[in-house]
Amino acid sequence: MKKQLGFADAFADARLGSNRKLSEIDELIDWSVLERLVQQMRPGTQGRPPFAALAMLKALYLQRLYDLSDPGLEEALADRFSFRRFCGFSLADPTPDETTILRFRHLLEKHNLTEAMFQQINGELEQKGLLLRSGTIVDATMIAAPSSTKNSTKSRDPEMRQTKKGNMWHFGMKVHVGTDRRGVVHSLVTTHAAAADIKHMDALLHGEEKEIFGDQAYWKEADRLRFRSKGVKYRVNRRGNHHRPLTEYQKKINTSRSRTRARGEHAFRVVKRLWGFAKVRYRGLMKNTARAFATFAMANLYMVRKFIVPDREKCLC
């Protein structure tokens, strides 16, 4: 149930307006289900009453949506009316400080709640016909981590690895995703950057696919035969080699498949280019994996808005 706004809030809403992007996302799912997931893990009733679980949860998603640090989120909640409105804080309500935000984020990480909420959001999108099951696009992207050893431990993050792509070396982690044909992410796995994409392909499939798309990193003849025996169309781009290069016909087939496969990169554009998740914010895979689940859940909500409100002008800010 949404909190009743006071006169001052109604006046501010009329003068300042609302953030259309946040309003659309707020209406997409039943937040009370996510609230119950978090509430089960909240501490007891001893001491000062905590902030409402739903308000803290929405604040976390705002943090991912706008790539804010804990101090940055504290300041934004105190300063921006649209943030207060989305979280359910009135103008008279106190807002959480950075320590409260940090503790709540650690609570979600400890109980793997961001993954559970990612699955719950996807379940709701599927019920509304916004997440398709007929096909899967598999892809991966690298998230950079600091490669310098000029820190307190005099070392790099031991859970990150270095790999070469083209003529460039990269240090960090990988986010592997499985998406539907429109680019909505239904599966997510994280590894260090040196992990081979093809080894995680099966973990990105939900098992109901009629066709599978992927770039040349996922091509494997044995997989093609395995999926064909199950009646699944294997539309992964074929990879040639020095002894047997691709024919012109095979190159045209790859180009045709890439028109669909490229949609699997839409979520990467949102989380990396629009929201700044091109670099890790924390040390270790666990915290960054929790961040990935929360960020890609919000990316799904962000992307499916156009499927249910096509007549509205979309704001990318």
Notable traits:
alpha/beta, 12 helices, 317 residues, six-stranded mixed beta sheet, disordered C terminus
Written overview of the protein:
The protein is an alpha/beta fold and 317 residues long. 45% of the residues lie in helices and 14% in strands. It is built from twelve helices and six strands. Strands 1, 2, 3, 4, 5 and 6 form a six-stranded mixed β-sheet that branches. Helix 2 crosses helix 12 (285-308), helix 4 packs across helix 12 (285-308) and helix 5 crosses helix 7. The radius of gyration is 22 Å and the shape is globular.
In short:
The protein is α/β, with parallel strands linked by helices.
Write the topology of this structure.
Elements: H1 7-16, H2 20-28, H3 31-39, H4 53-66, H5 70-79, H6 81-87, H7 98-110, H8 113-127, E1 135-144, E2 161-165, E3 168-179, E4 185-192, E5 211-214, H9 221-229, E6 233-236, H10 248-261, H11 266-274, H12 285-308
Parallel strand pairs: 1-5, 5-6
Antiparallel strand pairs: 1-3, 2-3, 3-4
Helix pairs in contact: 2-12, 3-8, 4-12, 5-7, 8-12
